[in-house]
Amino acid sequence: MSGAPPLTLARLNSMNQTGFTTALGFAFELSPWVVERAWTERPFASVEAMHRAMMAVLEAATTADKLALIRAHPELASKAAIAKTLTAESNAEQASAGLDKLTPEEFARFHDLNAAYRDRFGFPFIICVRLNDKASILAAMQARLSNDEASEIAEAITQIGLISKLRLLDAVTE
């Protein structure tokens, strides 16, 4: 993307659906369908309005589509995360919370909680790591293990909303 013009709201509003989806598909982890379906709501008055349209797509999505989006996210502090083989956005976000520099004990704690969470819900634990640190993430992982599945799907979608909004605000200028 380094030679491309900046992503401005005006430019995004004028793009065809394919261009729009290609430009912003990164916002929802390996799930460009969210962006693609929101395209019909343009023109957007602001990045926030654009994000609201994307979240409305998610709210209207089937449980199967929501679960597919949730499952597209990597586990926190996983071997893939440590090896930096995630998407560029996920690598940067996990590093921002220090998840790329865990002690062996912290890594084991994340591994155990990830396994318990995945066993219980069948999808990875999702949290907006940019708004948290190692301690608050671990506390949330432990606390959310007692939620029911519907609550956790809803919470994961809320967290994906925070993640995607920050990604869009980083990438798009008004």
TrEMBL record:
GO terms for molecular function: 2-oxo-4-hydroxy-4-carboxy-5-ureidoimidazoline decarboxylase activity. Transmembrane segments: none annotated. Pfam families: OHCU_decarbox (PF09349). It catalyses: 5-hydroxy-2-oxo-4-ureido-2,5-dihydro-1H-imidazole-5-carboxylate + H(+) = (S)-allantoin + CO2. Residues 13-168 form the Oxo-4-hydroxy-4-carboxy-5-ureidoimidazoline decarboxylase domain. Its EC number is 4.1.1.97. The keyword Aminoacyl-tRNA synthetase does not apply. One of its GO terms (biological process) is allantoin metabolic process. Pathway: Purine metabolism; urate degradation; (S)-allantoin from urate: step 3/3. This is 2-oxo-4-hydroxy-4-carboxy-5-ureidoimidazoline decarboxylase.
